[in-house]
Design a protein that fits this description.
This protein has 105 residues and is an alpha+beta fold. The chain has one domain: von Willebrand factor, type A domain (Rossmann fold), CATH 3.40.50.410. The chain is 30% helix and 19% strand. The chain is built from three helices and four strands, in the order ββααβαβ. The strands form two sheets. Strands 1-2 form a two-stranded antiparallel ribbon. Strands 3-4 form a two-stranded parallel ribbon. Helix 3 (81-90) links the parallel strand 3 and strand 4 (94-99).
């Protein structure tokens, strides 16, 4: 699970750290909201390179899905966002976008 704040994106935790749903849900609820700019491309890149591999907890027998929760439109690295989305799709990873404010178009 990664956390993105403005220009920065870092892993909050690895999915492989959890063996039950409730512990994972609790960890997600503890992720702080930091506000700032929206660098969707960097967050997706981090997910692609750090989560969707064996050391990141990826399981080859399960579908790969990114649930992208955003509170605004991308404002940083917008010019590379389309390329990153295509890389992810080329790997067979599905992206589900969830906008949580009326600032998302």
């Amino acid at each position: 699970m990664n956390l993105l704040t403005g220009n920065d994106s870092y892993l909050q935790f690895q999915l492989s750290n959890f063996t039950d749903t409730q512990t994972l849900v609790d960890a997600i609820r503890r992720i702080p909201y930091c506000g700032g700019d929206t660098n969707t491309a960097r967050g997706l890149q981090l997910a692609r390179t750090e989560i969707f591999n064996a050391s990141g907890g990826d399981r080859p027998d399960m579908p790969n899905v990114i649930v992208l929760v955003v509170d605004g439109n991308p404002t940083r690295d917008v010019e590379v966002l389309g390329e990153e989305v295509q890389r992810i799709k080329d790997l067979g990873i599905r992206i589900i976008g969830v906008g949580v404010t009326d600032a998302v178009s």
